[in-house]
Design goal:
The protein is an alpha+beta fold. It has six helices and six strands. A three-stranded antiparallel sheet has the order 2-1-6, covered by helices on one side. A hairpin with a 4-residue loop joins strand 1 and strand 2. The chain is elongated and about 60 Å long. 15% of the residues are buried.
Length: 173
């Protein structure tokens, strides 16, 4: 876990409609602006998942006051990424002269806007995923077998969703 002292839990949040799963560490090191900077330097989970799942995994950092960054990993290696520091962003005119619609279009081209597009979400939907109601917190330390089994059941329920009733099969197919 890239030496994350005091790591206590992993928060798993999903957007079922777009099949997006977000993993984030919960601990004193991952909160607030300090947490954004911690995430900027710790991508071991994204690298390992990309190799184990043979899929692209995106690690992102979002600090509403400072900037945003998205890094893509594939097969355990960095395969892309982009960063915007808000103070250095190229704007078509001074910020106080931009109307909301133009600014929204501009943000859609920044890293979080582009990642949202890749996932089929709006930028606002992507930024709201951490607060989504479909979430589970899984302890990472000091769990006994029954707590781990309970966490696994909760994770399966979150990822698989409610059981679907069997579909009626007819002769017509």
């Amino acid at each position: 876990m890239d030496s994350a002292p005091g790591a206590t839990a992993l928060r798993v949040t999903i957007n079922r409609r777009r099949k997006v799963v977000r993993l984030s560490f919960l601990g004193p090191f991952s909160q607030g602006r300090q947490g954004a900077h911690w995430y900027a330097a710790h991508h071991a989970l994204a690298r390992l998942l990309s190799a184990a799942a043979n899929a692209t995994v995106h690690a992102y950092v979002y600090d509403a006051d400072e900037g945003e960054e998205v890094i893509a990993y594939g097969n355990g290696r960095r395969v892309g990424g982009e960063r915007v520091v808000y103070e250095e962003a190229e704007l078509p005119c001074p910020l106080d002269e931009l109307d909301d619609e133009v600014f929204t279009r501009l943000q859609s081209r920044w890293p979080m806007g582009h990642l949202a597009y890749v996932f089929g979400l709006t930028r606002d939907e992507l930024l709201r995923i951490p607060k989504a109601p479909l979430a589970r917190v899984l302890p990472l330390e000091g769990t006994d077998a029954s707590a781990e089994a309970e966490a696994m059941t909760a994770l399966e329920a979150l990822l698989l969703g409610p059981a679907q009733p069997p579909r009626a099969v007819t002769d017509a197919g």
